[in-house]
Amino acid sequence: MSACASGAEAISQAADMIRAGAADVVIAGGVDSCINGLIVSGFAQIRALSTRNGDPQSASRPFDRDRDGFVLAEGAAILVLEREDHARARGADILGVVAGTAVTSDAVDIVAADPVMQRRVMEKAIAAAGLGAGDIGLVHAHATSTPVGDRLEAEAINAVLGNQVPVTSTKSLTGHLLGGAGALGAIVMIQALKTGAVPGISNLDEPDAGIDLNLLRKTVTDNPAKAGIANAFGFGGHSTALVITES
Q1: Is 142 a catalytic residue?
Q2: How many domains does the chain contain in total?
């Protein structure tokens, strides 16, 4: 269990299995069902949850100046990963390619992230894909809407990719699926690269002045990116990055 990076890490392990010749097809992803009193009270105790209880539609607001925590959600996201020649032989509709992945665990703190490790995991994933930072045309940020977490991730993204690459986070629309979040981010990236349609960050009324990123505040329908990176970070220093390219 890699906390909120679990779904993305499962995809990374599946890709490794296929590249190693251990499997032709792997079903991988993440699921979490955790909306109960114990889990909610635990996250509330560490002040990770939004307290916008009177305005739930606007509570999840990644990178916004007034963000105050994440909105707990439930869900699942599952992918079928397959060796390319195996998929083509059966006439499969190939939606995208998991071109490179990286997984790190720094254990620097029970909750807080290490921005150095977040940078490193993105750099390692890009290198594993045989690409350079300039090849990445889209970022799906982990961005849970916590005051500290979003800022640290923004610093890491800027350090690796600069401030011109479009960045989005669909947690503004879905809430935080915890173990399912990373796999859902991968699916969003696959669809965005395939169609050019990228959902903007909802509730981003006033971007945090301390965050220097090209944040997508509205949905775009003509993004030209051929490769993108999807981040998934978990409490305890678990970090996973997936570089996905067009099929």
Answers
A1: yes
A2: 1
